[in-house]
Structures are given as structure tokens and as C-alpha cells.
Amino acid sequence: MSGTCSAEPVGPAGRSLSGAPETKPAASFASPRPAPARRRACPRRGPATRRAGRCRRPTPWSFRGSHTEPRSMQKPVYVTQPYLPPLEEFVPYLQSIWDNKVLTNGGPFHQQLEQALCEYLGVEHIALFCNGTQALVTALQALRVTGEVITTPYSFVATAHSLLWNGIKPVFVDVEPDTLNLDPRQIEAAITPHTTAIMPVHCYGRPCDVHAIQKIADNYNLRVIYDAAHAFGVRHQGASVLKHGDLSVLSFHATKVFNTFEGGAIVCPDAKTKQRIDHLKNFGFVDETTVVAPGINGKMSEINAAFGLLQLRHIEHALQRRAEIAEIYTQALSGVKGLRLLPDAPQTVANHSYYPILVEDGYALGRDALYQRLREHNVYARRYFYPLISDFPMYRGLPSAAPALLPVASHAAAKVLCLPIYPALTDAEQQRVIDIIQGA
Ligand SMILES: *Cc1c(COP(=O)(O)O)cnc(C)c1O
């Protein structure tokens, strides 16, 4: 992204969809996540300077505002905003931590959150993590995955990075046009003697073709690890979508539907696997003096776990608001010429984690022009997922990364725009977004 302004609204917005490539340099594993958007917004557009009444750029389009009031008057609307319950509700949790002085290492809140999430999500076992990426890396270790893994190029870069961190070669396979999920019909052709697993993503929370994927995995004796970072609370055919595959990995990053500031989890089917994962996330310790594996520190702290328990008390409301907002977008935009909306997933209770639209050739503007037009009105939609993972420097040399082999994913990356959706988005703010899109 063009480095317009290093301080462009990143953070919640930026990372929201999981750290858009634009704001999180793919090459640097170690780079700190950008600070929350509002605190580091571009000085020209940041709330602070705007409040001071300065920093209006004297460009002609400052006052264009044909659809709405001048953009400089309007509050910025980001693609997402983290859900935060009232602060006073969190204080008792903090008091309890201060009282018992257990800060981490599987303390009481950690145990309670694992239990509460199993119940809420309807799954058997959960191991909490400090973030979703570490959970992905550990999931691969837990199943001793090696060699080659078939995965999607249409995701947040951490999906494939988790493979590189394990010395595994990603093999990219194209996605289906209606779900933008891994196309099972193309998986088989990508299997080699080195293939040991498939890592699909439930993109935007839409379930993958889980049955077709499992059938291939069974035929070829492959493991399946779902990157379910977008799929918190999604139900498919009457059960949690997280029950499919050998493991599913969640992210509780600030920008996800359910957040613990930073956090993640592995959903696993049996107690033995959970135990191995619990060892791996704690340096490989089994007891005080026994280390059974070169584990990592992937633990979730008590502060994050306590916050998760509080978030769970608000999750139904948050999901409800998301559903209402999605419905309004669908009503308003489904008739707009040249815009393509992804069909609702069948037999699915969605979480509306994202609202993607595809800006096809019939629309009045190109995708990037619409993206810019929205920005001019202080609306920060995001191009998730552009660029494709397979286009980043550490992947593009792979034979499977050739764009010609990934036409559906390449098309989506060129056309997609994710619109603002989060519980605190007001009707008026959403209408602003809709007016700009309809008025182009
Ligand atoms: C957010 C996300 C991740 C990474 O999760 P973190 O908790 O930010 O480490 C991985 N995969 C996908 C698809 C994501 O959206």
C-alpha cells in the first residue's frame, strides 16, 4: 500500500481482517503490530487534528461531498472497531487477579475460559493461546506435519507463514468463486508423495466444503488443520464448524468477532491431543523437571482470559448487531449494477465477521477507485485479501504460486472490498457508506 501515509488508519481497521498485507509487512515476522488506528491516524486526517480544526487539505475534492457533507466533517469509519464491554465490568476481574496474584500459566481465568468456550461453541476441548498465529504454528507441530501442505492463497498471510515457521512447503490451490474457500476439486491434483496435510481457511467465516475435504484427506491419509480465525461461533449443519478436520485454530485478535485483545485457541477432538498441545505451548514441560518437546511459550495470560470471559457475556448482542448490519448492506447493495455479493452459505449460522463485495467490471468505478472514493469520505474499507499470499516475496517463487494457476483467487484479490461492519457502527454511518457506493 503504497505507503501513502505510514500512519494511515491501520490498527483495528488495518489489521482487522487480520492484518491486511497493506499494514503488516509480510516479510517481517517480528514487526510489532500497528498501534490502534485512532491513536496513530494520519495527522492530516486524525481525529486530534481534525478536532483542532486544522489540517483540511485544500484540495478541490475536500468539498466535493456530493453525496454527503464534506468529508472533513465526518468521523472516520474503519472496516472494523474492536468490541469493548463497559470498563467497569472488567474491574472486578482485575481485582480478582490482583488479589490472587496468578497472572498466567493456566490460572483460574484461563481454565474458566477454556470451559466456557467449549460450552459456548459446542466443542470438546480447547487450548488457549497468546495469539492465533502461534496457535497455527503449534497445531502443525502437535500433529507432526512435515513436507508439503496444501493451502489457500486467499487468506491473511499468517496462514502460510505458520507453514514456513515449521519448515513446511506451502502448495497453493485455487479457491471456489462463491465462497472464496479452497476448491476441493483441485486439491487432489496438488497432492504429491510429500503432502502430509491440508490447511484450508473458512474465509470470512463461510464454511469450507468440509465433507469433500475430509473425503480427500481420508483417501490420501492426510491431516486437516482448519484456519478458523474468521469462524468464531459459526454453525454448519446444526453443529459448530470447528468440529471438522483434525484441529481448528481460532484467533481472538482485537479485530476479530470475539477478541481478548490478543489471543487464539486450538479446538481439538480428544483430551490426549489437547494435552500434547498444552505441553507444546508451555516449553514442552510436562512437570517440574520433565521436558518432552521443544515447545514454545504460547500461553494466554490471565488478563486476556478474564477479558474473554467478559466478552462472552456480550457476544450474542455483538453477533446480533453484525447480522442486522449485514442485512442492511445486502438489501441496499444487491441491486447495484456491477457489484457482486457472496451468496449466503447454505445450512449455516453465520457470524458476519466481514462484509465483502466484489466490484466487477459493470460497476461505475474500478475497485481501487471505489476504495479511494470511500477514503475521501473518511470511510476505510479494506481490500481483503489483496495481495494474495502467493504474491508475497517469500512465496511467489513457488511453482504453485503462479497467478495463472490461481485465476479465481487472483480475480477476487483484484475486485474485493470489505465494508465496515462492527457492533458499534451506527445506522447513519452505514448509510454514509451505502450512499457513496450507490452514488458512484
Ligand atoms: C487473524 C488471522 C490469523 C492470525 O491471528 P492472530 O491472532 O492475529 O495471530 C490467521 N489467519 C487468519 C485467516 C486470520 O484472519
Describe this structure as you would to a colleague.
- The chain is α/β, with parallel strands linked by helices.
- The protein folds into two domains: 87-174 and 181-309, 3-Layer(aba) Sandwich (Aspartate Aminotransferase, domain 2), CATH 3.40.640; 315-439, Alpha-Beta Complex (Aspartate Aminotransferase, domain 1).
- It has helices at residues 11-16, 37-40, 47-51, 87-100, 108-121, 132-142, 158-164, 184-190, 210-220, 271-280, 302-333, 367-376, 407-415, 427-439; strands spanning 77-78, 125-129, 148-151, 169-172, 195-199, 223-227, 235-236, 239-240, 247-251, 264-268, 285-287, 290-291, 339-341, 348-349, 355-359, 379-380, 416-419.
- The strands form five sheets. Strands 2-10-9-6-5-3-4 form a seven-stranded mixed sheet, sandwiched between helices. A three-stranded antiparallel sheet has the order 8-7-14, with no helix packed on it. A three-stranded antiparallel sheet has the order 13-15-17.
- Helix 4 (87-100) runs antiparallel to helix 11 and helix 6 (132-142) packs across helix 7.
- The site of pyridoxal-5'-phosphate has 15 residues, from helix 6 and helix 7.
